Amino acid sequence: MTASSQPPADQQQARPLHTGFATAEDGVSLHWTAIGSGPPMLCCNGVGVGTFFWRYLERRFSSSHTVILWDYRGHGRSQRGLDPSTADMSVARHARDLGHVIDHLRGLGFYSEPAVVVGHSMGCQVALELRNQRPEEVAALVLALGTAGRALDTFFDWSGSPRLFRTVHDLIFSLGASANLIVRPLLLSPMAFPTATALRLVDPHYTRQRDLTPYMAHLATLDLRLFIENVCRLNDHDAWPTLPTLDRPLLVIAAENDKFTPMWCSRKIVHQTPGAELLVLADASHAALIEQPETINHRIARFLRERLGRDT
């Protein structure tokens, strides 16, 4: 499909904004947005997350880069209504979908050189898989709050997580579509944000409710079966063996209080990847992109300046 244009939503200086759809080889439509101009910066979401978590990064870097946001199949504005029993929600599939987005954007003139690929949570695995599938497309990597593979093995730093998620997967599929009717009211409840902060899943001091509410609202729109299938498929992907030969500038961002990805995973990535750099965020959680955006953006800008010679 062709791209459409629209004015920026915020009050920043007007920057080019284009949006449209690419099509995967199996016919699934994939939504994308390109903001700004300059070398591409590709952002890969976490599972269950839309592009809203990138709002602060986009505002910072769209003056010097073409910031590209996109939605996984079954997420955001990409094609919904996929059959949960047959849909491929693997990391490898998402990386192939991103390849289709890249090809589409190249045809439109928005992608003309290798990108800085930024991943959050599951997006870290997608970014590493893109480097494996299409190394020529990747100039550098920024991996935030994620691991290099088999994410359920380290979820909550508990060895029983893969077994628990498989049990939950089977239960949700046994309930069918009715599982959505149970979970959606909880996600949309006024108690959702206070519960998340009380459990320290997000930082209660840094997280703004207006930044987290879109996540809850988006998650409530997903087919829970597709979501849990996607989560379980994270453990099929393993890029750990590729790290010693990654051969790209790499910045890893970790959070002290990340319940989902323990900080030792980030340290392990840096230890196994020659030349990799590490930023540790004090008191931050798995939602650090919206908790401490200024610190993250400052460190990414320094990384781009020192490793790629880019003035941001």
Q: Would you kindly provide a written description of the structure presented here, covering whatever features stand out?
A:
It is a single chain. The chain is of the alpha/beta class and 312 residues long. The protein has one domain: Alpha/Beta hydrolase fold, catalytic domain (Rossmann fold, 3-Layer(aba) Sandwich), CATH 3.40.50. It has eleven helices and nine strands. The two termini are 31 Å apart. About 3% of the residues have low confidence.
Write the topology of this structure.
Blueprint: E1 4-5, E2 17-23, E3 29-36, E4 40-44, H1 55-61, E5 66-70, H2 91-108, E6 115-120, H3 122-133, E7 138-144, H4 161-175, H5 178-187, H6 192-198, H7 209-221, H8 224-233, E8 250-255, H9 263-272, E9 277-281, H10 288-291, H11 293-308
Parallel strand pairs: 4-5, 4-6, 6-7, 7-8, 8-9
Antiparallel strand pairs: 1-2, 2-3, 3-5
Short description:
The chain is an alpha/beta fold.
Number of domains: 1
Contiguous low-pLDDT stretches (5 residues minimum) are 4-12
> Over the alpha carbons, how many angstroms does the gyration radius reach?
18 Å
Q: Please identify which CATH superfamily we are dealing with.
A: Alpha/Beta hydrolase fold, catalytic domain
User: Per DSSP, what share of the residues sits in E-state strands of 2 or more residues?
Assistant: 15-25%
Overall structural class, as computed from helix and strand content, comes to alpha/beta
Q: Biggest sheet: strands side by side, in what order?
A: 1-2-3-5-4-6-7-8-9
Q: Could you describe the largest sheet, including whether it forms a barrel? A: 9 strands, mixed
Shape: globular
Estimated helix fraction:
25-40%
What order do the SSEs take from the amino end to the carboxyl end, as H and E?
EEEEHEHEHEHHHHHEHEHH
Number of strands: 9
Q: What is the average per-residue confidence, as pLDDT, rounded to a whole number?
A: 94
What is the CATH domain class? Alpha Beta
Q: What would CATH call the architecture? A: 3-Layer(aba) Sandwich
Q: What is CATH's topology name?
A: Rossmann fold
Instruction: Please report the distance between the alpha carbons of the first and last residues.
Output: 31 Å
Specify the number of helices: 11
